[in-house]
Design brief:
heterodimer; A: about 120 residues; mainly beta; 7-stranded mixed beta sheet; B: mainly beta
Amino acid sequence: EVQLVESGGGLVQPGGSLRLACAASGFTFSTYHMTWVRQGPGKGLEWVAYISSARSIIYYAASVKGRFTISRDNDVNSLYLQMNSLRDDDTAVYYCARAPPWSYWYFDLWGRGTLVTVSS
Amino acid sequence: EIVLTQSPGTLSLSPGERATLSCRASQSFNSNYLAWYQQKVGQAPSLVIYGASSRATGIPDRFSGSGSGTDFTLTITRLEPEDFAVYYCQHYGGFSWTFGQGTKVEIK
């Protein structure tokens, strides 16, 4: 089955760190570009970070640049998001999503998400 | 950065009716970079339309996308019960991806 499964969410104090993972299966992970998108409670979607298939291109949203790091391991079909210096407004469901090899500007498969709660 | 404004915020319709959702951009851009997503309650978003008018795999033909420049539209010709959801438009440009605030299509 073609799917993405996120893990690693949880409760963390402000200023703390968390590492999210996204396991891909059912498709050739190494050929797809990947991204993280988050959704705050009762809010809309916000793009967070992007990594190209070969890891050569990485972009971040201004709201997380310098605090979050996106990475991937194509040998184990996994995407990661290292989140440091977490703030209250980072509280959200974090989704991983893939972008097709031929068009990185839209996302054709999404995981179910993992909830990150930043609170003291 | 381009801002996407969706209207209306909420659309109250009955099954079988036609839904017309608008997405307006603060600047003109290539329509290839416009996509629409559907998000049902408690679920992840899923791709509906890409390139402004191309349906994603498995999307029924009652869904159609149109538009260019700054004005884009998602139309659902005859609403089915499973179509009631929140719809987001999304744009890529300048090394970032932005979403509209969403339109909720609810049962009247």
